[in-house]
Design a protein that fits this description.
alpha+beta, 3 domains
Length: 353
Amino acid sequence: MRLYDCDQCGQSIHFDNRICVNCGHRLAFIPERMAMHALRDEGNGLWHLGAEPSYAVRLCANAADDICNWTIPPEGSETFCVSCRHNRLVPDTTTQEGLSQFRRISQAQRHLFYSLLKWDLPRTTRAEDPQGGLVFDFLVDEIKPDGTVVPAMTGHEDGLIAIRAAEANDATREQIRVSMNEPYRTMLGHFRHETGHYIWDKLVRDRGRLAPFRSAFGDERLDYAEALRRNYENGPPVDWQEHFISTYAATHPWEDFAECFAHYLHIVDTLETARAFGMGTDPWGHSDLSSEVAFNPYRARDAAQLVEAWIPFSVAMNAVHRSMGVPDLYPFILTPTVVAKLEFIHGLVHGQH
């Protein structure tokens, strides 16, 4: 994620900001420009760029509850931004808990859509593609009459992504992460992983790229239910770390792809953030851990270029996290086999396959 400047006063601003702390202008992200801008309220639901009065926008309907800070063009009947319009079931915003959940969920969702827009990846709505358009259901847990809680399930099927809304709560999500012995679990991670399944449908299955996919990830025709059962009963292969980014990736080629897609986005977007802040590593006496993001990660020539910058940076950030007594930022190992899978995904998102 890059840094932005308030185009009214020059103050540094961030992707999720709503108000400039220096000049007080309303801030919003304009997807058509992929940039943050200061706005002036002109009435009638229209806002104009403070630095370009002829350019008008409307706020996403979810801005009314301070859920979204994106805009939509002034013309047309659409009331939700290009991210929020994919939502079907959302938390109850008339309750404080539901409103808090939706705000956290939306923040992660907008970070996902930032990447989808940067690469112009498929993102048709259900209105555009009733059978396979991308749509999100943020599901609440079921409470039985005896008080038993039945957790909602996170998953994907034919473009429909279900995400358990309760995981917007840090305590709930951390409890699940620990119980499942996962090194990493975030709302943004859920969005990136589950959207990876949708991207597989659109860019691999629907575009006839199954042969190269199978060469990199294996045969997806393996029985999925049986693969999951075997994983939960027996655990991952002993040598899983040599071939997979995570234990879950080892269950089935579909999950391997979704995990690698998520990690590709993790790496690219975090490197863009590091570049925006001018961050680099140059430890004295440890030249092998030197790194500088002197390129645009979203336009990297290949996955190897990303990994070369990422490994020293992630090692340094892990060390910083340990100095604060918190878990590693990136507790994963990128083996040559995993890098080859990231290379396949790099080719997909850049249209090289």
